[in-house]
């Protein structure tokens, strides 16, 4: 293309795209900055390909059911039959219809089968002959609908059936008599013939032509107006042109080295089209052998229509407050087959788990990303610019993936940084989707990413008896898990039987079995459960009543048992266990709101939402590790946010005196985590590369004390100091094991726990090294020493009474006083910067946890008590333990605490 023509093209594209984006921006309201940047990148990639890869394109994106981006590029028709540029190319419009080619397989045939499966009219595991009775034979008998959907039936991939047939009845007969090319189920071999058969199955089951059934039963009910077979017959005129005749298929037939081998006489048929294809399906088997209507190709649509169909699937079959495709059908079709694809749909590489896509030979591409609620449609007319010297059309795979990744990366960045509020039916926060279950007015949910809180609105007559009505924000999980949140209703007091909480259920059907943790409007807290579908709900009430409560609601599945733990925020948990309810291994779990009045919509807020996958029975402590969450707790409000995740183990965060960074140990090395940017930087500790989690900063922030397992000391922990900027560590303790816990405010002393003569006691030692001074001598473990900010006391924990409790003493070891006397094992007292409060971790009592142990991966509490004495209150409920809060972790302003929680990381 000449430079002048390219310049004109760029100017035209810039004008068209800018206008489309402006309209789209007004439609979507506010979206995240990173997603906007993703759209800009995607537009640039598409615009750069116009004029040499394809004549034009339309890019449409929706998020959570809302149109958020629309770009229109180039021309609908650029070249004539001889490959010459038109003097007046036809411009592309947002409403231009495209020949979808193989996208027909998912947007017509697969959608039809999903709809039929929803109503029990199709069983995907039934043999094909159940629906096509004469599809019989030694090998044909074993072919199921699933085999056809997964391209594993062993059928020939492609043949020019129009050499032998001129209508669908003749075509079916040719396919039925054709020998299989592979064994049934022996591998995935993409076959157009298999999807032709699926189209015939739809027609046989519905007793309607395929085009009539999808139009009447899918497109019209969804308000889709521009999606049809044989579009010229329906009066449409604005089409994206495709190929100059059928030259590509002609090549396939005549050249046996081109990829497919036709075994007959190529000259036996000569009906090739000799004009630019506009409004006629490019696919020869659809056009010639099936009169334009087939299960594998022939559908035309616009990008705007296709995103509506994608939105439905991203929303798990839900639209406009109703379940258009049943959740069980959605689950069945979007469970991977043995070839790592879905039924009908492809499972793309390089995109988030659960994404689904399909491409079309004409240059079309559709993608759903439920994780971020995204529907992405990129339609091009690549065929209208002809083939290369080898006879191939341009490969659009890299461009399609790059466009998708740019948009997905933007959505992911916004979700992690909190630049956007995610609303609607798609992925929201940590959840995969949301829906109204049963007969309920449309509900909804918003996620405020900065505070990591959810607000859920729900209606519904009840969750009781033989069915449930509520709004549900859900995630699919397998195995054991712990669900925890802090929840309360918003607005005026409603029906006393309104409910919120967690529910676990195998399906999204209203009559599904379930186990539910339900907080009622009158404060009743109970475990409710339905043993089988449609059975009557049963209930076990909690001994805790939480009227008008700021409630902590925790529901755990542990090896088939269900454990409900509840409390008013600040109190300790009351627990009860349910056994004898059998739910499948893979279930939906999530938050719900039910108004107990289908004329009312109630709202509730959920903070500190955690979905934890706990340690399994084979985990070996100190060898095997779960993932780590770095959390920051606002002490006044009790709201905790996760600021950093890692699939391995990091432990024991403490704050730098400037409040800008947290220091923690990760696999033997120290790291500084910048709170503002999220950047992680290794701290140079020289030879000390086997550090444990006992490290602490001097009060002035200039020095870092560490505990390193020195090889020359047979791996015993030895205390060192190193400048906070890094450098050569200085050895402080001569003997080990020695575990550092604190500096004196004046920087002169270090306090540590040392094992000497078989007993652990508290010691102090000059910060520059010297003789160690023993401060405790009572039998039993003494640990976790830390100076008060005024230097008047050293606080520590001791098991001398038979249970680990908090103590304090004077810096010389005198005046030892017990501070806690409760039923927990209390560890690691940390003094607030103003010296008024003690934060500490509480482990379960014996026999679950021994008094002298602080293991990994337990239900633990962070608690707060005044240094002047008084009851302790809970400030965090979490799964953690060792490494959670071993070192001083108050922010310098005394408003926040940092800690680590643990979970096996979810996808």
Structure characterization notes:
It is a single chain. This protein is of the alpha+beta class and 907 residues long. Helices cover 17% and strands 34% of the residues. The strands form 12 sheets. An 8-stranded antiparallel sheet has the order 12-14-15-28-19-24-25-26, with no helix packed on it. The chain has a 7-stranded antiparallel sheet with strand order 13-18-27-20-21-22-23, with no helix packed on it. A 6-stranded antiparallel sheet has the order 3-2-1-11-10-9, sandwiched between helices. A hairpin with a 3-residue loop joins strand 9 and strand 10. Helix 3 runs parallel beside helix 6 (192-206) and helix 3 crosses helix 7 (210-219). The two termini are 46 Å apart.
Write the layout of secondary structure elements.
Blueprint: H1 3-28, H2 33-49, E1 56-63, E2 66-79, E3 85-91, E4 98-99, H3 104-118, H4 145-149, H5 168-177, H6 192-206, H7 210-219, E5 228-229, H8 247-254, H9 284-287, E6 299-301, H10 303-314, E7 318-319, E8 322-323, H11 327-333, E9 356-360, E10 364-369, E11 374-380, H12 397-417, E12 421-423, E13 433-437, E14 444-448, E15 453-458, E16 463-464, E17 467-468, E18 470-478, E19 481-490, E20 499-505, E21 514-520, E22 524-530, E23 538-545, E24 551-558, E25 561-568, E26 574-578, E27 586-594, E28 602-612, E29 627-634, E30 640-646, E31 650-655, E32 661-666, E33 669-674, E34 680-682, E35 696-697, E36 703-709, E37 717-723, E38 730-731, E39 738-743, E40 749-756, E41 759-766, E42 773-774, E43 782-787, E44 794-798, E45 805-809, E46 817-818, E47 825-831, E48 837-843, E49 858-866, E50 873-880, E51 896-903
Antiparallel strand pairs: 1-2, 1-11, 2-3, 4-6, 5-6, 7-8, 9-10, 10-11, 12-14, 13-18, 14-15, 15-28, 16-17, 18-27, 19-24, 19-28, 20-21, 20-27, 21-22, 22-23, 24-25, 25-26, 29-30, 29-51, 31-32, 32-33, 33-34, 35-36, 36-37, 37-38, 39-40, 40-41, 41-42, 43-44, 44-45, 45-46, 47-48, 48-49, 49-50
Helix pairs in contact: 2-12, 3-6, 3-7, 3-11
């Amino acid at each position: 293309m000449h430079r002048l023509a390219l310049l004109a093209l760029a100017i035209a594209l810039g004008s068209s795209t800018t206008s489309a984006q402006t309209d789209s921006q007004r439609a979507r309201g506010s979206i995240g900055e990173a997603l906007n940047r993703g759209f800009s990148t995607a537009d640039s990639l598409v615009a750069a390909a116009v004029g040499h890869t394809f004549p034009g394109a339309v890019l449409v994106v929706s998020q959570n059911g809302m149109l958020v981006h629309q770009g229109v590029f180039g021309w609908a028709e650029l070249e004539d039959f001889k490959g010459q540029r038109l003097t007046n190319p036809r411009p592309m419009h947002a409403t231009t219809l495209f020949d979808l080619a193989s996208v027909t397989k998912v947007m017509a045939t697969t959608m039809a089968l999903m709809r039929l499966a929803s109503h029990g009219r199709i069983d995907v595991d039934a043999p094909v002959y159940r629906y096509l009775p004469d599809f019989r034979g030694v090998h044909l008998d074993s072919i199921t609908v699933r085999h056809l959907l997964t391209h594993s039936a062993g059928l020939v991939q492609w043949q020019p059936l129009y050499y032998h047939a001129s209508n669908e009845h003749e075509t079916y007969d040719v396919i039925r008599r054709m020998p299989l090319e592979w064994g049934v189920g022996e591998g995935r071999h993409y076959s157009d013939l298999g999807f032709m058969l699926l189209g015939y199955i739809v027609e046989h089951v519905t007793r309607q032509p395929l085009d009539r059934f999808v139009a009447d039963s899918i497109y019209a009910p969804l308000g889709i107006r521009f999606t049809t077979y044989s579009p010229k017959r329906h009066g449409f005129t604005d089409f994206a042109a495709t190929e100059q005749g059928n030259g590509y298929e002609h090549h396939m037939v005549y050249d046996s080295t081109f990829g497919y081998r036709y075994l007959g006489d190529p000259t036996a048929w000569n009906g090739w089209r000799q004009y630019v294809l506009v409004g006629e399906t490019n696919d020869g088997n659809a056009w010639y052998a099936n009169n334009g209507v087939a299960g594998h190709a022939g559908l035309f649509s616009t990008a705007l229509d296709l995103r509506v169909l994608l939105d439905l699937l991203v929303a798990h079959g839900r639209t406009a407050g109703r379940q258009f495709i049943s959740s069980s059908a959605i689950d069945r079709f979007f469970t991977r087959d043995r070839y790592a694809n879905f039924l009908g749909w492809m499972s793309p590489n390089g995109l988030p788990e659960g994404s689904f896509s399909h491409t079309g030979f004409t240059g079309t591409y559709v993608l759903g990303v439920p994780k971020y609620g995204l529907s992405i449609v990129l339609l091009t007319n690549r065929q209208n610019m002809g083939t290369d010297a080898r006879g191939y059309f341009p490969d659009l795979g890299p461009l399609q993936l790059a466009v998708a990744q740019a948009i997905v990366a933007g959505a992911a960045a916004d979700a992690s940084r909190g630049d956007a509020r995610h609303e609607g039916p798609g992925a929201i926060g940590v959840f995969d989707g949301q829906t109204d279950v049963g007969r309920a007015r449309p509900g909804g949910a918003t996620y405020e990413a900065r505070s990591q809180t959810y607000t859920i609105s729900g209606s519904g007559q009840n969750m009781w008896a033989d069915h449930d009505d509520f709004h549900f924000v859900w995630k699919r999980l397998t195995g054991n898990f712990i669900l925890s949140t802090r929840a309360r209703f918003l607005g005026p007091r409603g029906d006393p039987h309104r409910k919120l909480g967690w529910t676990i259920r195998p399906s999204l059907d209203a009559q599904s079995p379930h186990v539910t943790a339900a907080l009622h409007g009158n404060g009743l807290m109970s475990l409710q459960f339905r043993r089988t579908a449609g059975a009557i709900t049963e209930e076990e009430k909690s001994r805790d009543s939480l009227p008008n409560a700021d409630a902590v609601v925790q529901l755990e599945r542990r090896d088939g048992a269900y454990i409900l733990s509840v409390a008013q925020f600040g109190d300790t948990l009351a627990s009860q266990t349910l056994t004898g309810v059998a739910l499948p291994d893979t279930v939906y779990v999530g938050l719900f709101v039910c108004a107990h009045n289908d004329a009312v919509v109630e709202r509730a807020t959920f903070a500190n939402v955690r979905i934890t996958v706990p340690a399994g029975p084979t985990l070996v402590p100190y060898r095997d590790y779960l993932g780590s969450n770095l959390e920051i707790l606002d002490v006044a409000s009790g709201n905790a946010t996760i600021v950093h995740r890692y699939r391995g183990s990091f432990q024991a965060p403490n704050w730098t005196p400037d409040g800008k960074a947290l220091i923690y140990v990760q696999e033997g090395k120290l790291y500084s985590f910048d709170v503002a940017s999220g950047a992680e930087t290794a701290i140079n500790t020289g030879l000390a590369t086997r550090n444990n989690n006992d490290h602490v900063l001097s009060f002035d922030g200039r020095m870092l004390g560490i505990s390193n397992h020195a090889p020359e000391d047979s791996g015993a922990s030895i205390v060192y100091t190193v400048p906070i900027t890094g450098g050569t560590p200085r050895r402080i303790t001569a003997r080990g094991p020695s575990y550092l816990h604190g500096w004196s405010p004046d920087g002169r002393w270090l306090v540590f726990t040392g094992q000497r003569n078989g007993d652990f006691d508290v010691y102090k030692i000059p910060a520059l090294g010297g003789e160690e001074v023993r401060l405790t001598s009572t039998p039993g473990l003494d640990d976790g020493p830390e100076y008060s900010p005024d230097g008047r006391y050293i606080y520590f924990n001791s098991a001398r009474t038979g249970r680990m409790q908090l103590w304090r003493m004077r810096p010389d070891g005198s005046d030892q006083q017990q501070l806690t006397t409760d039923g927990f094992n209390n560890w690691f007292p940390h003094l607030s910067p103003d010296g008024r409060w003690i934060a500490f971790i509480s482990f379960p009592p014996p026999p679950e946890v021994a008094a002298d142990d602080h293991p990994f991966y337990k239900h633990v509490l962070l608690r707060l008590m005044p240094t002047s004495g008084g009851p302790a209150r809970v400030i965090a409920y979490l799964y953690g333990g060792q490494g959670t809060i071993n070192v001083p972790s108050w922010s310098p302003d005394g408003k926040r605490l940092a800690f680590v929680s643990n979970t096996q990381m979810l996808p």
